[in-house]
Amino acid sequence: MAKEEKYILPVLDPPETFYWGEPIDRATARDMGLKRYFTGKPCKKGHVAERHVSSACCVECTLRRHRTPEYRADMRPIYRDRYETDPEFQDRRRMHSREYWRAKNQ
Ligand SMILES: [Zn+2]
């Protein structure tokens, strides 16, 4: 059932709230063309936060996973080095991904 977790995140107990909007279920959000939905219920890590419509993953989990040292160690070294030392490169990458998603989701 549960997949082996590669990037271990601590469980927040009691759950913490990161989003205070109106609940909107996944199907409704998808029909409205939204990227995220919100159930108001905590994820298994105790985040009361939005979830991605595409993957049903908790947004807060994704963010936190990307900040773990293990995740950063797995980034391709060429990107990791530049990402940490070259602000212009960071901007370009952010820009690229924004453009990429916009094009993909049109
Ligand atoms: Zn979460």
Protein architecture, described:
The longest helix is centred in the C-terminal third of the chain and has 18 residues, at 87-104. It is built from five helices and four strands, in the order E-H-E-E-E-H-H-H-H. It has 106 residues and is mostly helical. The strands form two sheets. A two-stranded parallel sheet has the order 1-3. The protein has a two-stranded antiparallel sheet with strand order 2-4. The protein has one domain (16-104). The protein is globular, with a radius of gyration of 16 Å. Zinc ion binds at residues 43, 45, 47, 49, 58, 60-61.
Please trace the helix and strand order, writing H or E for each element.
EHEEEHHHH
What integer is the average pLDDT? Answer: 86
> How much strand?
5-15%
Number of helices: 5
**What is Rg?**
16 Å
The strand line-up of the biggest sheet is 1-3
User: How far is the first residue's CA from the last residue's CA?
Assistant: 35 Å
Give the class from helix and strand content and strand pairing.
Answer: mainly alpha
Uncertain regions spanning at least 5 consecutive residues: none
